[in-house]
């Protein structure tokens, strides 16, 4: 029987070396941490190395990795083709004060997969690319307000750091709630909309059409728990923004090259004006990119007089470029078909596990992404997802980890190409054991 205390003391015993590392890290880093998303109490496991779909921690445990650096490693860890490209590049130098051929080669590959991207510009993170997307929209339209969705996550981007994970009480309307600190001008200039709600979105957009520069949306709410948009919702959003000359930004940091070769825009058949990319595009190395309509992107063109000044010491660095090229080359239609099949199997099996253990749980899934929600309600937006029991989720996550399977602490997972049915079955077996313990 796993009471909370037993579970925690088991974890403390299981992670002696990680605990030492964490204690030392705390002396240097606030809370021992550089990246909030990967923290979970009492402290995370520290990784020693990784290969394929497995990681090994400092205490020597082997764990099957369904988190994949928060959904960014579609080929798993240390894929031989990526390693080979990167090794060659590292020997040839890692960053120059000059461009390389690789940036347009990767750009051509992106534009082939996402025809809405007429021009592309690289950054070192999705957060920076999201920031640029807002800047470009404001500058292009001359308007200041931005609409985003409740539960929508766009990284550490000042303009969108509201209502990412707001506390919910049943009588609260959807509104801009700062994520911790946010300057007053961000809160005042951000309109928060309910995801998958066509009526509300059409009404609000119409109401503030004169002031609205852009609507930024994840085609699948990612960190809120893999909540796919309904097709009609994204189509309505496209129509409403087009009608009033509002820029539609798809944040495809998670969905790009994941839910299909052409990302969410191909999957849903909706063409955004701008697209924010990251994660998979860098093949395991730091990256972000903003792409989209030529007239909007030309604001960055330094050959005229650029409206937006944008640089970055490591933008389009050849290591990330080559890792990205090597990764996209591997992602053939057959590979996607296999990943998606395994994603479907992962979700189906988890639903059976929860049904058999009489747990209130829902599993959301699209292509090779899935998430577990410990709620009896259907999950279709941020609020329905937050109806879950966070304690059950936390215990399930920790229990699963000690059984040798890693999801993110929020119960999100994805398939990587080195995975087979065997790893998916292991996920189901470990989930069943974890659910059994939680039941008791
Ligand atoms: C949808 C979405 N947008 C933007 C970001 C920020 O990207 P990065 O972590 O590369 O800054 C993330 C990160 O998880 C994300 O999920």
Explained architecture:
- The protein is α/β, with parallel strands linked by helices.
- The chain is 41% helix and 15% strand.
- The chain has 16 helices and 16 strands.
- The strands form four sheets. It has a seven-stranded mixed sheet, sandwiched between helices. A four-stranded mixed sheet has the order 1-2-3-15. Strands 13-14-16 form a three-stranded antiparallel sheet.
- Strand 8 (220-221) and strand 9 form a beta hairpin.
- Helix 5 (102-113) runs parallel beside helix 12 (318-330), helix 8 (198-207) runs parallel beside helix 9 and helix 13 runs parallel beside helix 16 (421-439).
- The longest helix is centred in the last third of the chain and has 24 residues, at 333-356.
- The radius of gyration is 22 Å and the shape is globular.
- The termini are close together.
- The site of pyridoxal-5'-phosphate has 16 residues, from helix 6.
- Pyridoxal-5'-phosphate (PLP) binds next to helix 6.
Distance between the termini: 6 Å
Unique bound compounds: pyridoxal-5'-phosphate
Structural class: alpha/beta
What general outline do the C-alpha atoms trace? globular
Strand content: 15-25%
- Outline the biggest β-sheet: 7 strands, mixed
Taking strands numbered 1, 2, ... along the chain, how are they ordered across the largest sheet?
4-12-11-10-7-5-6
Number of separate helices: 16
Low-confidence spans: pLDDT under 50, at least 5 residues?
Answer: none
Tell me the number of strands: 16
Computed over alpha carbons, the radius of gyration is 22 Å
Could you estimate the helical fraction of the residues in percent? Answer: 40-55%
